[in-house]
Every structure is written in C-alpha cells, then in structure tokens.
Write a structure and sequence with these properties.
There is one protein chain. This protein is of the alpha/beta class and 295 residues long. It has a single domain, classed as NADP-dependent oxidoreductase domain (TIM Barrel). Helices cover 38% and strands 16% of the residues. Strands 3-4-5-8-9-10-11 form a 7-stranded parallel sheet, with helices on one face. The longest helix is centred in the middle third of the chain and has 15 residues.
Length: 295
C-alpha cells in the first residue's frame, strides 16, 4: 500500500499491533459481505468485491473477518478482491465458532478444530501466515488454556504472526497472556453499548488493541445528545458515534461493516471528524439503558 499520500482512513492516526503491525485506526469488518444470516454468498457478489476494493483505496489497512462468516465466504471474497495484497494490509481472522445454518453458531475451540480452521483460512486467504488470528469465543466445553496453547504452537510454527481474542471477559485476557502475547481484543462496544468499558481500559493500559464489533450496531438508541452533536458538526449520528469511539481511547480500532460502497465512504469519513471537548464530554456522560446494553 502506498503510504506516501494521506488517505481518508489515516485521518484518525495509527496504532501498532504487537510492536510491528501499524494500521490506520479505522478498519473494516467483513461479516456483512456474506448472505442473509451471515450464511452463503452475497446477493450481489460484484458489490461485495467493490466494497473491499474501495476500502483499500480509502486507506483501510485492517480488515477483520472469520472462517464462520459464510462460512468461508468472507475470506474467499477478500482473497478474490484483493490478492495479491497491497503492502501493509493486515487481515485479522478468527476461529472457534462453527456454523450449521443461517444465524446459527455453535462453539468449537478444540485444538483439533482450531488447527483445521487455521489451515482452511490460510488456504482461502492465500497466505502463508495470518497476521492476527483471534479465538472467536471461549468454548465452555474445552479448556481455555488448551485453546490458547494450540494457537501459541501455531505461532511458534510461523503460521500465525500474532494471537488475539474476541468475546472475552478480563479474566480470559489475563489467562491468555500467561500463555502467549495478546495483541488485540474484539468485544461488542459502541457509544450505545459500554458493557466492556473495563476491558477497553485494561487493553489501553497494556498496549493492546481493542476492536469494537458492532461499533454502530446499537444505533436504535438515538440519544438526543448524539443527534445534537451530529447537527452541530454537519455529520450523521453514526459518524459521530464512530468519532466518539476514536476519541474514547487511542487503542480503539473500530471495524464498521457494510455491503454498500456509499455507506463505507460515510463510515471512513468519520476518521477525520473531531469532537470538541465539550461535545465529547457530553456524549461520554450519556448512560445507555441496560435494555440497550443487552441488545
């Protein structure tokens, strides 16, 4: 990727994962380019490919996906759209969920499954090593330490560059770090959903990236302060919500997803939006109701 010219996604600055992967802080989540229920191919494959290519043109160099998106479909589309990959593009993928149908997810973080899933992701993404490989979710039927030890072995073998976590409480982050370095955590988090505030703060203290999934996914909670800020700043409420995340902590790497180029461009434009101090303070003081937090 040519980094000589500034790009829209670079406007929010950068964060370095694991000491050697520097990414623009506004990324892209590739779950929504699959079919309905995150199952099967997209209705409009050409549009999905166009979104991926446009994201890179806009300077997005962190793309998040998973083997369970489709399943397999998201990873295959990323490779079709972008391989050979531009220099500096970081693809983060995950394993630990299996799919049996649309909207259905089942745990499987056994070492055998994680090994098979990793090999599948390497093949689909046409890579020899995954830059950031995330345990999608702890499996209550499998030893968490065994799952992490499996990923640590593959890191030692060179198939994974960095290990990361998703959908975890603080206890799991601390346990994982005793087994292998953790470069990022991905939990649900947004302006309207702050259940994991403590995890954001922990990750910030320890130099760990935090990728909020569904960063604008709870926007049915349309607080008047958000609407007021959007009007004041000539932006959309969703752009203000993304800008709030980017100012909430320097380690936050939002990965909003979409299947439409126009929506992608609106999201990336939020990287340049700066909330005045009083606006940020007012938004930060908002307390979403528990019903919204539970989603």
């Amino acid at each position: 990727m040519n980094t000589a010219q500034p790009t829209p996604a670079a406007a929010a600055g950068t964060f370095t994962l694991g000491g050697d992967l520097t990414v623009n802080r506004l990324g892209y989540g590739a779950m929504r380019i699959t079919g309905k229920g995150i199952w099967g191919p997209p209705e409009d494959k050409a549009a999905a490919l166009a979104v991926l290519r446009r994201a890179v043109e806009l300077g997005v160099n962190l793309i998040d996906t998973a083997d369970s998106y489709g399943p397999n479909v998201s990873e295959e589309l990323i490779a079709e759209a972008l391989h050979p990959y531009p220099s500096g593009l970081v693809i983060a993928t995950k394993a630990g969920w299996e799919r049996v149908g649309p909207g259905q997810w089942t745990h499987n973080a056994s070492p055998a499954h994680l090994t098979k899933a990793l090999e599948g992701s390497l093949k689909r993404l046409r890579l020899e090593r995954i830059d950031v490989y995330q345990l999608h979710v702890p499996d209550p039927a499998v030893s968490f330490d065994a799952s992490m030890e499996c990923l640590a072995r593959h890191r030692e073998q060179g198939k994974i560059r960095h290990v990361a976590l998703s959908n975890v409480a603080l206890e799991y982050i601390e346990r994982a770090r005793r087994v292998v370095p953790i470069v990022s955590v991905q939990n649900r988090y947004s302006f309207a959903d702050r259940e994991w505030d403590s995890v954001v703060d922990y990750c910030e203290r320890h130099g760990i990236g935090f990728m909020p999934w569904a960063p604008i996914g709870q926007m049915r909670f349309a607080h008047e302060a958000l609407e007021r800020a959007a009007k004041q700043l000539n932006a959309t409420p969703m752009q203000v919500a993304l800008a709030w995340l980017l100012q909430r902590a320097k380690n936050i790497l939002p990965i909003p997803g979409t299947a439409k180029v126009a929506h992608l461009e609106q999201n990336v434009a939020a990287a340049a939006l700066r909330l005045p101090g009083e606006v940020f303070a007012e938004l930060s003081a908002v307390k979403p109701p528990p019903a919204v937090l539970r989603g």
